[in-house]
Structure formats: structure tokens, C-alpha cells
Amino acid sequence: MKLAKQLDYLGTETAFAVSAAAAAWGAKGNKIYPFHLGDINLPTPAYIVEAMQKAIGDGFTGYCPGPGIPELRDAIARDVGTKRGLQYNSDNVSIQPGGKPVIAKFIATVMNPGDEVLYPNPGYPIYESQIEYQGGIAIPYGYIETNNGFNLDIEAIKKAITPQTRALIYNNFQNPNSAVSSPQEMEELAELCIKNDLSVLSDEAYFEIQYSDTPKSIVSLPGMQQRTIILYTCSKRFAMTGWRLGAAIGPKPAIDIISKFNTNIESCTAHFIQRSMVEAIEGNAKGPEDILSELRKRRNAAVKGLNAINGISITAPTSTFYLFPNVSAIMERKGFTDVNQLMDEALTETSVSFCTRKHFGRSRENEFGNYLRFAYSGIDVDDINEGMEKLKLYFEK
Q1: Rounded to an integer, what distance in angstroms lies between the CA atom of residue 83 and that of residue 192?
Q2: pLDDT-based confidence at 368, cuts 50/70/90?
Q3: What sign has the CA pseudo-torsion 12, 243, 202, 218?
Q4: What is the CATH number of domain 5-43+287-395?
Q5: 224-272 pLDDT, tens per residue?
Q6: Which fold has domain 47-282?
Q7: What whole-number distance in Å separates Cα of residue 80 and Cα of residue 246?
Q8: Domain regions of the chain by residue span
Q9: For the residues of 321-368, what is the DSSP string, one character each?
Q10: Do the Cβ atoms of 56 and 253 come closer than 8 Å?
């Protein structure tokens, strides 16, 4: 069988290779401290599970409308609109089997082959993969590290925009570095998008994972609603990573096309899971609050553990469940020139598993610093403390 040449441009999530290496080390009898994947080891709230089981018992196991069942589209439109101060209705919502399909379908909807699309780097690697696989030119933009976290490199974004730039992908509450835009930064970015007539994908997978501040969306700024698709997912907020349920929310003409892709690709998202999601959103149970409370405890433990290590200094992020410390001083102390070498040796020396900056897109030109990404969503507080103690001994050795 001859494979398509375009497959040369299809990337992947190399974080899963880290997971495989950790599993192999664990199979040898070693206890693993898993900081590598952004999965959640907390149970989906019981009221959602019960709603799903009832939906199956009631026979909602067949096909349903490609754009999603009306009850769920209405519920998401109200939920998303209320939290962002906007008006959406069911015509603005297309249900998806997870948040990830929104990336590919957004690009297919707005980008022509040869168009340029700006995307965050370091960032979720599927942005880069899908832009290039679909024949576009992936243009990375980066971040500036400050004493309080990371800021968008707005000046670099300005310089990167050309007449061929068609779209921009924006991930506020960012994976992997937990960056949160200030109101001024978000306004500057919106102004650039409007001035250059760019379509925008606002990846809001972590919109509800907030430990202190009220989340803001770029779609709420004047002139942005009509040019922005929101990537919405149930995975983080409701601990439903394996359920595969999300949505695209945006202007009706674009949403109609995305729903047309639904029909072409997967027909529809599982009916009984959609039924349970209506209850998840409108049930008014405190399951999401309990999830967030536990994640806050884990964040505090992980931040404390990392800051106890000589050569690492980070602030506690206000959103997501990731930490992205600069380990350049540790690299120099241990004599490594490749951050993945540090990752590999740390696994065998400590059984602590984590990702590095290299798992989040190709490095940009003139990029400085070496970074690790710790996800604390899939590891309990006691194991966080234990793993960080082992890491401290190793990093300071």
C-alpha cells in the first residue's frame, strides 16, 4: 500500500511516548510518580455517571443529529454565553467527540493551502500538526518569561503577520506554561486580529480551571465574537477526559461547516454521553467544585516542592494544572545539553516522570532556556510530596 505524501506533515503528541517510557519503567517494579500527562485521576462526578447510565437504559444508544442533540446545544450556548457576557443559541454550537477535533475542523474551515496560521509555541502540538498536514504554513509565536509567569510576545506576533496570514490560534490559560493574559494583553491581541482580519480559534479547555481569578475570554471583546471559534471541552471541568465530549462555539456560517465535517467524519457524538452532559451542565451539583478544590491542593504541593529545589523558582499559576519551571541552572549543574537527557535520567534515578519543552512544538529560532512541564492532575498530594523529595535529591546532586 502506498501512503499519502502529506502524511509526512502529520505530527503527534510525543507526551504519550513519555507515558510509554514511564509504564515500561513501572513494569519493572518501580513506583512511578506521574507528572507527564494532563489526565485526571479523579472520578467523574457520580451524578454525571448516573445520568449516562440512565440514558443508556432509556435507549439513547443510536444515531442522533450530527451537530448534537438540541438539549445539549442549548445548554452549552447558555453556559458559555452567560460566563462570557454574550448571546449564543443552539445554531452557534456544534457538539464534538472531545475538544481536539475542533482544532482540525477550524483549520479546515478557515484555511486554504498555503495560508499562514499563527499558533502558540510552546503549545499544544496538535496545532502545528494540523496546520501543516492540511497544507498551511505554521507560524509560531512565543512567550516572555517574567517573575509572575509568562506573557505573550506581542511584538513578535505583530512582526509575524503578513498578507498571507489567515488565522490565529490563542490558548489563554495555556498548556504547557499556564500563561494568563492580562486585560491589556488580550485587548492588544484582539486589536491585531481585527486590524488584520484574522479568524481566531480560542482554545478554552481550561476556562473553568481557575483557582482565584474570574476567567476572561477574547471572544467577549468588541469585534471578536463574529471572528472567533471557541474550543470547549468537558474533559477538565468534569474529569471526563475519556468520555470524549466537547464543542465548537462560534458564528453560524462556520459552525454549519464544522457540523458538515461531523457528518463526513464521525456521523455524530455518542448520544448517551450527550444526554449525560446536559445533566453535568444544568444539574447544579458541586462535583466540579470538588475537583477544583483537589487540584488546588495539588498545585500548592507541587509548587512548594519545586521551589524547595535549588535552581528552581516559580510562582503558583492561577489557572490550569501545569507547572513550567526553567531548569537551565540544573542542566548546567548536571552537565546536560539536552533537556530530554535530564528527563530520561530523572525517570531511572527517581521514578518521577514529566515532559519537557520539546514535547510542545518545535523550538523557535533564538529560543532561550530549558523547561520542564509538570502536570499535577493525575497524581495525589502524598505522591506529589514524595516525588518532589526524590527529585530534589537528584536535581541537587
Answers
A1: 24
A2: confident
A3: negative
A4: 3.90.1150.10
A5: 999 999 999 999 999 999 999 999 999 999 999 999 999 999 999 999 9
A6: Aspartate Aminotransferase; domain 2 (3.40.640)
A7: 12
A8: 5-43+287-395, 47-282
A9: SEE--B-HHHHHHHT-SSHHHHHHHHHHHH-EE-EEGGGSSPPPTT--
A10: no
